[in-house]
Amino acid sequence: MPTFKLDGKPIPFEPGDTIIKAAWRQGIEIPHYCWHPGLSAPANCRMCLVEIAPKPGTRPMLLDVLEWDPKIGDYRPVQKPKLQPSCYMAAAEGMEVLGDTSEHVVRARRDVQEFLLLNHPVDCPICDQSGECKLQDYWLEHGQYQKRMRDEPVHKPKGVVFGPTIVYDAERCVMCTRCVRFMEEVAKDPVLDMRERGNLNEIVVSPGRVLDGHYTFMTEHVCPVGALTTQDFRFKARVWFLRTVPAVCQGCATGCNAHLDYDPRYNKAYRYRPRDNEKVNKFWMCDEGMLTYKEAHEGRVLEAKVRGKATSNARALEEVKKLFEGVPKEGIGVVLSAEHDLEDNWALLELARVLIETPHVFETGKPEGYEDTILIHRDKNPNTKGVSQLAPGAKPLQALVDDVVAGRITHVLALGAAVPVDAEPLGQAKVVTIASHVGVLTELATVLLPSTSWAEHSGTYVNAKGMRQVSEKALEPQGASKPGWRQVSDVASALGYEAQWTKLRQIRAQLIGSAAVEALPAARLDAGAE
Ligand code: SF4
Ligand code: SF4
Ligand code: FES
After folding, report:
1. Is 196 left (phi over 0), alpha (psi -120 to 50) or beta?
2. What is the DSSP string of 254-280?
3. Which string of b and e fits 144-178 if b means at least 16 CB within 10 Å?
4. Which residues line ligand 1 at a C-beta cut-off of 6 Å?
5. What is the per-residue pLDDT across 436-450, written as a single tens digit (0 to 9) for each?
6. What pLDDT, on a 0 to 100 scale, did the predictor assign at position 160?
7. Do residues 440 and 418 lie in contact, with contact meaning Cβ atoms separated by under 8 Å?
8. Among 261, 460, 252, 503, residue whose Cα is nearest residue 371
9. pTM of the entire structure?
10. Does residue 249's CB lie within 6 angstroms of at least one atom of ligand 2?
């Protein structure tokens, strides 16, 4: 691989890489505002300037400038190297690039920072970006000058509602145009643009339009400062109180990688942020997916129920025992769920095939919905592929409905709540449901057992491309919920069987040999295991 040097350190690069991108791949950040690895480079902020040492035998590129000389009390002509934007300059073999080690670069960064803050309001105490703002970070790293501007700053519109999800503050905007380019290049809806020039610049929505669609949250995410905020997260939390875990979005079969931010003091999830994964979601998530963090709290099953009446887990399990006493295995149907992770499904399949030995295994999940060619998959379940790999012979839920109507199946053990078909006739059977969220199968349940959601336990999901991904635990279990696989083992005990799994890592050890997870590294599978 060809290499160049950045401050003396060799940096390998792929042909076509810019200097900033090659450094970014090595985990080295050259300060920048307008550059984003997933967008084009307009090179308009000038924060990423670097000095490129001339090759031996070539003439350096120099600029004639005037410099104040306090000794003579006047300006005098001097020359300085012409700095280059590293977000635009292609890396070349043997190139010597100076960043932190160039006094000209250090000075340029400080000057760009001062320029960008000339008219910036002192909003940090009330700004949602505070704590993760590039203006704050770079001022500390590359600024730290005494403010020289004494004039009244230019005032611009604040709190401009761009659409149902996004609010714009023009005074905080550094005009990097990332939001404009995101909407044009990724969302394919060029609804944002810049108007006016110089310090009157501001971002506007096209006349007659609002900023809406399926990817508006991403404009806030790419904004390096607090100019764009989401109606959803605005003024809700200070980011330094939040903790984060690597999660997998549950909104569809794409399985976008996310950071789930939560406040451990209140055991509450606050937002999703996309987690970079070039093979799955690159740097993006859709709006619907970004909002699924709310499902950690909304529509949850938090207590056991028997015939609709709240009770304890122990009492509900006694009812399970009574319901299933003397029922022949041929009369029992077991339903796996594409909403739940591999571990929960493996445990239920183990109970069905190894302990109960019923031949009747079915699968369920949410019905299909909207899709696009950017990220959104029509399959609205996070683990459809995982279930079909785990139980290739599982029958669709309609087959169970038919068996119940025909009286062939009288008792059902189900995971998950959503159904893709009319499942009302299942009410003719005795249904035991283990679920994290309410839905048709929880409404029909004779006995309902609460399962933790994806946010409260570590789980493995297989996305539509067949990639196994682990979503880590953020929150403590809410209400009386337990991980689904643990509820399955309690059900097994209630039915008189001894489940061989008491810990998550035991299930994962079993899963490693199965087709569903054989490609997932063992270390990853063990992450977060209890
Ligand atoms: S709103 Fe944010 S992303 Fe858009 S131009 Fe301004 S600073 Fe950049
Ligand atoms: S595309 Fe699917 S997985 Fe990705 S963020 Fe949207 S809903 Fe979530
Ligand atoms: S990041 Fe290079 S000019 Fe903005």
Report:
1. left
2. T--EEEEEEETTTTEEEEEEE--BTTT
3. eeeeeeeeeeeebeeebebbebbbbbbbbbbbbbb
4. 173-179, 203, 222-223, 225, 227-228
5. 999 999 999 999 999
6. 98
7. yes
8. 252
9. 0.93
10. yes
